[in-house]
Amino acid sequence: MNATDRAQTRTPKHTVNNPADGDSDGVHDGIPDELWLNDTAWYDDSTAGNFYTYDDTGAHWFIFNPDGSVRPQKLGTTYSNWGKCSGECDQLDLNRYNELQPTFKSLNVSTKANFDINDDTNVYGEAKFVRVKADSIGQPSFYEYGRGIDIARDNAFIDPSLATLMDVNGLSNINLHRFNEDVGRRFEENIRETKRFVVGIDGFVGDDWNYDVYAVWGESTREQVNSSNVINDRIRQSADAVRLDDGSIVCRDETARAAGCIPTSLFGDNAVDQKAADWFTTTSIANSKITQTVFNASVNNSEIYELPAGAIGFAGGFEYREEKSDDVPDPFTSTGATFHTALQEEHGKFDVTELFAEVSVPLVTDVTLIQDLSVDLAVRYADYSTVGNATSWKVGADWIVNDQVRLRGTVSEAIRAPSITELFSPLQENFGFITDPCEEGRPQDPVRIENCAALGIPIDFPALATVASITLEQGGNVDLRQEESSSITFGVIYQPDFAEDLVFTADYWSIEIDDAIETVDEQDIVDKCVDSISGIDNQFCALITRDADSELTLIRSITQNVAKFEASGVDFEVAYGVDAFGGKINTQLVATFLDSRKEFPFQSDPTQAIENAGTTGEAEWQGNLIVGYRSDTWTLNWRTRYLDEVSRFTPQQLAINPDRSNIMGYGTYVVSDARAGYTFDNNVTLEFGIDNVFDKDLPGFTTGTSSTSGDASYDNIGRLYYATISYNM
Fold this sequence. Notes:
Blueprint: H1 7-10, E1 13-17, E2 34-38, E3 40-42, E4 50-55, E5 58-64, E6 70-72, E7 75-78, E8 84-89, E9 103-118, E10 121-140, E11 142-143, E12 149-152, H2 160-168, E13 173-176, E14 178-179, E15 185-205, E16 209-230, H3 232-239, E17 241-243, E18 249-251, H4 254-258, H5 274-280, E19 281-307, E20 310-328, E21 346-367, E22 370-384, E23 388-400, E24 405-416, H6 420-424, E25 428-433, H7 446-454, E26 469-475, E27 483-494, E28 502-519, H8 522-530, E29 544-546, E30 552-580, E31 583-600, E32 610-611, E33 621-630, E34 634-643, E35 646-647, H9 651-656, E36 665-666, E37 669-679, E38 684-691, E39 720-727
Parallel strand pairs: 26-30
Antiparallel strand pairs: 1-2, 3-8, 4-5, 5-6, 7-8, 9-10, 10-15, 11-14, 12-13, 15-16, 16-19, 17-18, 19-20, 20-21, 21-22, 22-23, 23-24, 24-27, 25-26, 27-28, 28-30, 29-30, 30-31, 31-32, 31-33, 33-34, 34-37, 35-36, 37-38, 38-39
Helix pairs in contact: 3-5
């Protein structure tokens, strides 16, 4: 489904700098700094091709007509953030390439079997196969401002109008910007296949001990096929066409000509010769595979020892797990020769051996205010081949006050070992613009001055990095440690005597994650290096290389244990059921209040806390109301989802700049779904459903496609009808 298929997402819209904004020197005038405007899009690219010339009066933009002739480009109203226009302007509508939902096809096959050897022993097995094919189509290749395609004056396909323009302006070449729609939009096909097999044996030893021993092997593969991937050198060679003395048109580069280069025009709509496109495009195929092997053995006994308040229960066991990942991009694409990103091969594996035990101990029973009181203790020891030893534990309590009230609470600590990608992702080369914090004239506090001096950088250092592109190496880090979390939960369950099927539940929770794994921005790396109160012997300075003149030459932006996260809130649930109309009506309200969701980009600096609760994707209140009816033949279901109003900006951002935009947030959002089914006497069930019954629109200018901005919380399909048929044997 494309953005142009829905009225709300059809019109191009962007944020632009507000010409009326008068903010200066940290003083804010209350006028929005940016505006979200309809019919606003980019003008520095075109499907027909465009370019600009520059003189003392500024930039002059030209665009190609469909037939390849050239004319001045209509720019309408332009804005100070480069490349956007509205009104009477020749603009590029990227909504044409914005896919709201990709296409999925899936096949699932699974089977289970078990066999009782005797009354105490059972062997079992499982097998599953899943195949998912996902297709998505995006933008075509493009050559934009800063890396367009040079067209020489003697190009064989130049229209007389362009030739005249170049001659009048004394231009030997132009730099063409172009969205190559006539080459073909980039199409990506992902085929994922998962195979999983389980074999095991379980049973009893004696009267009380139960055991379970099983082995699991699974493999997931992905083949990613990208078509219309342009070969950069070839499209430039094909576009650099000249006319020979005999009137024939050929590629200028004789080596390319010998390799089969076919010349083409890039001027105007549908200008590209299909044979040329076949020569300068390729289909790229990447493959990845993840395998997992697990061996687990456990025992449990619900009555290991009898206490006055009841029996102690125990469970414990051993598990070995090995995971391996191999990601092999297309060999040709990985050289950097094509339009697609030049990814490198990624290989990694780890194994972990774990011992675990859990015990449930009843403490008190049948005394005043205590019908039952018990504690649960659990511990898990893990030995990772990557990060070494780690221990997780949990202490929980369950207090039944009486038949109506029950209290529960848990304190726990857990770990997350880094993933294979976080550990072993290869360093990829990139480039970025960095402001050198040691440059002369930059704000300097005593710590920064001392650290810059320790690096051998003079106080009058005229850094080039501010205007130069610095080499970046971005990837994983084999020295990562595990993330560590601590959590507290406390809850109450109330089931009143006057309504047997009515249950109220409320649970408070608080979670803190330390040593969280994040990729640090390159500018933050150079800043944190010289702002460390412990000197330059820190993890950030170790990622920086300077030459003999103290100029920045390389920054390694790798995953590190630097961040911290905190979150707290309350979960609520109200459930009620009543017999009616020959069946039963069940209602359930589930809601969450997010009290706080803080992010510390650098846990060593708690003053930089970012509060995300109440921002897009992190609504303070959200919930689901479900009302259902079920009888022997009918099932009816109504579900309403609620999201509270949210801000587009954090409190910290608003403290710095309170008038950022004309759209500061999104209002409450309510969507309802309905479903009805009927089961016939032959066990065939026919079901009809409507998602988003009232065709609720997206809020503001969201598209429902970005998980990073939080707008994926909103439905971008609109009203959807579906039907299913199933048979129960």
